[in-house]
Write a structure and sequence with these properties.
Number of helices: 22
Radius of gyration: 28 Å
Shape: globular
Helix content: 25-40%
CATH superfamily of the largest domain: Ribonuclease Inhibitor
Low-confidence stretches: 94-136, 281-353, 639-673
Structural class: alpha/beta
Distance between the termini: 57 Å
Number of strands: 20
Mean pLDDT: 76
Largest sheet: 17 strands, parallel
Strand content: 5-15%
Number of domains: 3
Length: 673
C-alpha cells in the first residue's frame, strides 16, 4: 500500500465515523427536525453526509419527504445531493416540519470545502404546509405516492401509521397500485390504524396476491372483517411473507380458521400475530392515545428514585407482559397504542358456540390448529386476547407439542383453566424448540403449576416463562421452588400477581439459592411480607447469577428492607432491584429502631455496592431525616465511583443529574442541588 493510499484511508476514516453517528441518531429520532439539526453542523454534513446516512424518515407531511428525496438539502454546492431514504413512515401530524434558514451553515474549521460568496443566500428547506394543513391536501392520492415509489430505487420500507385517510381519494387503489408494482427493493409494508375496512381493504389484499417480494406485512388495527381474513388466507398460501401482523381486527372464528388453515400449507412465514382478532360478543374498538405502548429497556445507570408517590413505569428489557400488568403489544405494533382492557373485556368464562354453524366452525378451527404440525418454518405465534371455546383452548395448549418448530408461544388472556394447564405441561415436556412461553392473565391454578413445574424440571429449551396474573396461591411456591432447584436453562421467570405469601416465597427463594441459570425474577404484587423479605435477603447472599429482582408491592416493611440492604452490600451480581411501594418506612412520621436500622442499611448498601445499576425504592414514605442520611451516602458514593471507574466527573446538568461515565445518578428528589 502506497503512502497516498494510506493518507486517503486516514481521511476517509473520520467520515465513516461521522456517518455512523448520523445513522445512530436516525434510529432514535428519524424526524425532519433531527435532519435539520444534523445538517446545521457544517456544510459537509448538509451536502453529503446527512443525505447519505439519514436513511429513515418519519413525518406526517409526505410532500416534505418527497422534496427531501428529490432536491438537495442545501443548494449552491456542486457535491450537494438529495437524501436517500430507505425507510419511510407517514404518521399523524408533522411537528417542526417547516424550517427556513437564510444563511449557510456554520463552516467547520477542519472542513476543506470552500465557502460560497457572502452575497449567496442559502435556503436549507423550502417552506411547506405542516400539521393539519398538510393533511388536508390529499398528499398521497392522485398518483403522488405511486409515482414516488415507482421512481425510488432504494426504498425498502413504507409505513402509514395513525394516518387519516378520509381526506385522500381512492387511497385503496393507490396503495394497491404500489403493491402491484412488485418492486424487489420494497420488502416491508405497514398500514396500521388507518381503517382499511373503509378505504379499499379488498383492493389491497388482491394486490398482495401479485406481489412476491414483500417479506413483512403489518395490517393491524384496521377494522377488517371475516371476508378480509379469508382473502388474506389466500395470500398467505402463495406469498413470500416472513413476518405478518394482523392483530386487533374483527376476523371472528371463520377468519381465524382461514388464516390458520393457510398457515399449515405455508413454507415461508416465521412470525404471525393474531392478537385480539376473535371476540364473539363485541367488536374491537381502538382507543387512541398520544403515547406509544412499547417495551423499554433496563436502565444501565445507577438510579435512585425516592419519595415519588406517583406510580412509576417499571423498566425492563422485556415486554410489559412480564411485570404482572396487562401484556404489552407486540413490537410489530408500531405507532399506535390500544389498551384492550379499557375499552372492552372478554367474558368471564370461555364462550361456547350454540348454533350448529358455530359448532362446525369451532371444530374446523380446532382441526386447523392440530394441522399446524405439518408446518416446519413457523417460529412465533401470538393468539392472546381472544375468546375461544374450551375445545379450541385445549388445542392451543397442545400447540407447542404438535408444532415442533415454534420457539415463541404467547397465549395470554385466553381464560385457560387447569385442564389446559395439564395439556401445556405435557407439551413442554416433549418440546425441544420452544424457548419463550407466555401464559399471563389466565385461570391456571394449583394443578396447572404442579404439572408445569414438574415438566419444567425435564425441559431443556425454555428460557423465558411468564405466568403472571393466574390463580396459583401460596401452596404453589413449593412446586416452583423445586423447579428452580432442578432447572438449568430458565433465565426469566414472571410470577407477579399470584397471591403467593411468605411460605411460598421461602420455597422459591430456597430454590434460587441452588439455581445457577435464572437472570431475572419478577415477583411484583404478591404477599411476601417481612418473613419473605428475609428469605429474599438470604437468597441474595448466596445466589451469584441473578441480575434483576423485582419485588414491588409485597408488604416488605423496615425489617425486610434492612435484611435486603445488608445482603445487597455484599452482593456482586445483582444489577437492578425494584422495591417500590412496600411501605418500608411508616407514614406516621414515628421513627423507631427498625426504621433507623433500615435507613442505615440502605445508606451502607449504596455506599459499598459497586455493581448495582438500578435501585427503585419510591413509594416507601421516606421522611426528611432518611433523605438527609441517604444524601450524604450518595455524595460519598459519587466520589467512590469516580475513583473506582477512573472517569472524570461531568458537572450536573440543569441542577438535576450527575453523570459519571456511562452511569447516571438521579438525585433530583434528594435536594442536593
Amino acid at each position: 500500500m502506497t503512502n497516498q493510499q494510506q493518507q486517503q484511508q486516514q481521511q476517509q476514516l473520520p467520515i465513516i465515523i461521522q456517518g455512523f453517528i448520523i445513522q445512530w441518531t436516525t434510529e432514535y429520532d428519524p424526524t425532519p427536525y433531527t435532519l435539520i439539526k444534523l445538517a446545521l453542523v457544517c456544510r459537509q454534513w448538509a451536502a453529503t453526509l446527512v443525505p447519505n446516512n439519514f436513511i429513515s424518515i418519519k413525518s406526517g407531511n409526505f410532500n416534505l419527504i418527497k422534496r427531501l428525496s428529490t432536491k438537495p438539502i442545501i443548494r449552491g454546492y456542486p457535491d450537494s445531493r438529495p437524501c436517500t431514504f430507505y425507510n419511510i413512515q407517514i404518521t399523524r401530524g408533522a411537528s417542526r416540519s417547516s424550517f427556513i434558514v437564510t444563511s449557510p451553515p456554520t463552516h467547520s474549521p477542519s472542513s476543506a470545502i470552500p465557502s460560497p460568496p457572502p452575497q449567496t443566500t442559502q435556503q436549507l428547506l423550502p417552506r411547506v404546509p405542516s400539521g393539519i394543513e398538510a393533511n388536508t391536501m390529499g398528499q398521497l392520492s392522485n398518483g403522488n405516492m405511486l409515482q414516488y415509489v415507482r421512481q425510488s430505487s432504494c426504498i425498502q420500507s413504507f409505513s402509514l401509521i395513525n394516518y387519516n385517510l378520509e381526506i385522500e381519494r381512492n387511497i385503496g387503489g393507490e396503495i394497491s397500485d404500489v403493491i402491484a408494482l412488485n418492486k424487489s427493493n420494497l420488502t416491508k409494508l405497514e398500514l396500521v390504524n388507518v381503517d382499511l375496512a373503509s378505504n379499499g381493504s379488498s383492493q389491497i389484499i388482491k394486490a398482495l396476491l401479485l406481489n412476491h417480494h414483500l417479506t413483512e406485512l403489518n395490517l393491524s388495527r384496521n377494522f377488517m372483517r371475516e371476508k378480509d381474513a379469508i382473502a388474506i388466507g389466500q395470500v398467505i398460501k402463495s406469498s413470500s411473507l416472513i413476518k405478518v401482523n394482523l392483530s386487533f381486527n374483527e376476523f371472528r372464528l371463520s377468519g381465524v380458521r382461514a388464516i390458520i388453515e393457510a398457515l399449515s400449507n405455508n413454507k415461508t412465514i416465521r412470525e404471525i400475530n393474531l392478537e385480539a382478532v376473535c371476540h364473539m360478543d363485541c367488536p374491537v374498538t381502538p382507543k387512541m392515545s398520544s403515547s406509544q405502548n412499547s417495551p423499554v429497556t433496563i436502565s444501565t445507570n445507577l438510579f435512585l428514585n425516592i419519595n415519588s408517590m406517583a406510580p412509576t413505569t417499571l423498566s425492563s428489557s422485556f415486554s410489559a407482559s412480564s411485570v404482572g400488568t396487562s401484556p404489552s403489544l407486540s413490537p410489530m405494533l408500531l405507532g399506535s397504542s390500544f389498551d384492550p382492557f379499557t375499552s372492552r373485556r372478554a367474558p368471564a368464562s370461555n364462550s361456547s358456540p350454540t348454533s350448529s354453524s358455530s359448532i362446525s366452525m369451532d371444530s374446523g378451527l380446532t382441526e386447523a390448529i392440530y394441522n399446524l404440525k405439518t408446518n416446519t418454518c413457523l417460529t412465533s405465534i401470538n393468539l392472546s386476547h381472544n375468546t375461544f371455546s374450551k375445545q379450541v383452548s385445549v388445542a392451543l395448549s397442545e400447540l407447542a407439542q404438535s408444532c415442533q418448530s415454534i420457539t415463541n408461544l404467547q397465549l395470554n388472556n385466553l381464560k385457560l383453566d387447569d385442564d389446559c394447564g395439564l395439556k401445556l405441561g405435557c407439551a413442554i415436556r416433549d418440546t425441544r424448540s420452544l424457548s419463550r412461553l407466555s401464559l399471563n392473565h389466565n385461570h391456571l391454578g394449583r394443578e396447572s403449576v404442579t404439572e408445569l413445574s414438574f415438566n419444567m424440571c425435564l425441559n431443556v429449551s425454555i428460557t423465558e416463562l411468564y405466568l403472571s396474573n393466574n390463580m396459583f396461591g401460596d401452596d404453589a411456591g413449593l412446586d416452583l421452588g423445586n423447579m428452580l432447584a432442578a432447572n438449568r436453562t430458565l433465565e426469566v421467570l414472571d410470577l407477579s400477581d399470584n397471591n403467593i405469601g411468605s411460605i411460598g416465597t421461602k420455597s422459591i427463594m430456597d430454590g434460587l439459592q441452588i439455581n445457577t441459570s435464572l437472570r431475572r425474577l419478577v415477583f411484583n404484587n404478591n404477599k411476601a411480607g417481612d418473613l419473605g423479605g428475609e428469605h429474599m435477603a438470604t437468597m441474595l447472599s448466596k445466589n451469584k447469577t441473578l441480575r434483576v429482582l423485582e419485588v414491588c408491592t409485597n408488604n416488605l416493611r423496615s425489617k425486610a428492607g434492612k435484611h435486603l440492604a445488608n445482603s445487597l452490600a455484599t452482593n456482586n451480581s445483582l444489577t437492578s432491584i425494584r422495591l417500590s411501594y412496600n411501605l418500608m418506612l411508616e407514614h406516621s412520621g414515628i421513627v423507631n429502631e427498625d426504621i433507623k436500622d433500615c435507613i442505615q442499611a440502605i445508606s451502607l448498601c449504596v455506599q459499598k455496592n459497586k455493581t448495582l445499576m438500578c435501585l427503585e425504592v419510591d413509594g416507601n414514605h421516606f421522611q426528611t431525616a432518611a433523605v438527609q442520611e441517604i444524601q450524604s451516602c450518595m455524595e460519598r458514593n459519587l466520589t467512590t465511583l469516580v475513583r473506582g471507574d477512573k472517569m472524570p466527573v461531568v458537572q450536573p446538568q440543569q441542577g438535576r443529574t450527575w453523570k459519571v461515565g456511562r452511569r447516571r445518578l438521579d438525585i433530583s428528589s434528594l435536594g442536593l442541588l
